[in-house]
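Study the following:
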Amino acid sequence: MFETNHKLVLASASPRRKELLAMLDLPFEIVTSDVEETSVKATTMQDYVTGVALLKTRDVAKKVPAATIIGADTIVVFNNELLHKPKTREEAISHLSRLSGKRHAVMTAVAIIEPNGIETTFVEETAVVFHTLSQELIEAYVASGDPYDKAGGYGIQTAGTLLVERIEGDYNNVVGLPLAALFAQLIAKHIIQFAKE
């Protein structure tokens, strides 16, 4: 369906992002960054998530010259506060208890760095509304171990989907890569084309 003459590199260790990008059915490599995300300082959530995505993507661009690098970072924002990946059981329970019955935002920033050094970034935002959660459900979900590697302490593509009443926006964005918006950018920048018959 699509073709590219670019060497594409995904700057992410996330298996979820890998699965999503693979939907374009184009060859790509995975090279991960070794950056300290907490080094990013910003005044807005959009600037923060964009800063982290750029940090990761620039790091990989240094390692793989002459490639087009695609990087991303996803954050969960509730009441203008960042809910990081929980490190402890207590933190995971706290995140989910706060999100129970409420609406929060999932923001994914995507950074594209072309071989000529041109950088493109955008932020996709999806609203997520949680069911009112019982303590039993919160504790059972946390006990599954699923929350720990996920922003906000849940994964919509795993058992965390049981917590979600509805979403407004791109589902894939909540998973970690707004594929439709990324595709639109890659087509617009002629990084990928529709395959000739």
About this structure: The chain has one domain: 2-194. The helical segments are 15-22, 45-63, 89-99, 135-143, 171-175, 179-188.
